[in-house]
Specification:
Layout lengths: L3 E5 L5 H7 L7 E8 L3 E2 L2 E10 L3 H15 L4 E7 L1 E3 L4 E9 L2 H18 L2 E7 L4 E4 L3
Parallel strand pairs: 1-5
Antiparallel strand pairs: 2-7, 3-4, 4-6, 4-8, 5-7, 8-9
Helix pairs in contact: 2-3
Length: 138
């Protein structure tokens, strides 16, 4: 079964991700949408950029394949954005379409957790006080 896996330098579409996991055997669909927020901790975010290692797409495909192996019949999608993003933009969208809701929740949770833990995509934040921070660097 083909799964949607990609990294884009343009806005993400939650409806497109949900459509990618739709199917006759899907009884439950769970999505997670990561959105750029204006505050991190107690600091106001004024700029954000995501950068991906050249292997990021293949590593993302590996994550999706591992989740699919543990959830036969699941339809999975994971997309991440790179480049400069604005407050409110979608940074990441994952979805799991499964025969039953419990499995869809478990698969979607693992998909986003494993993506965040293992895919080499880094966030560079700039704050209103002039400081900056890299998140996710090894």
């Amino acid at each position: 079964m083909a799964h949607l896996v990609d990294i884009f330098d343009r806005p993400l579409s939650e409806p497109d991700v949900v459509a990618a996991v739709a199917g006759a055997g899907v009884g439950g669909t769970v999505t997670f949408v990561g959105t750029v927020r204006d505050v991190d901790g107690d600091r106001e975010v004024v700029g954000l950029e995501y950068t991906a290692h050249p292997t990021a797409r293949s590593r993302l495909a590996d994550v999706v394949a591992a989740v699919a192996a543990d959830h036969p019949g699941a339809r999975l999608a994971a997309v991440h954005r790179v480049g400069r993003l604005e407050i409110g933009d979608l940074a990441v969208v994952v979805a799991a379409g499964c025969p039953h809701r419990d499995e869809a929740f478990v698969a979607a949770r693992r998909l986003i957790d494993d993506l965040k833990a293992t895919v080499p995509i880094w966030k560079h934040q700039t704050f209103a006080d002039g400081t900056e921070e890299w998140v996710g660097l090894p």
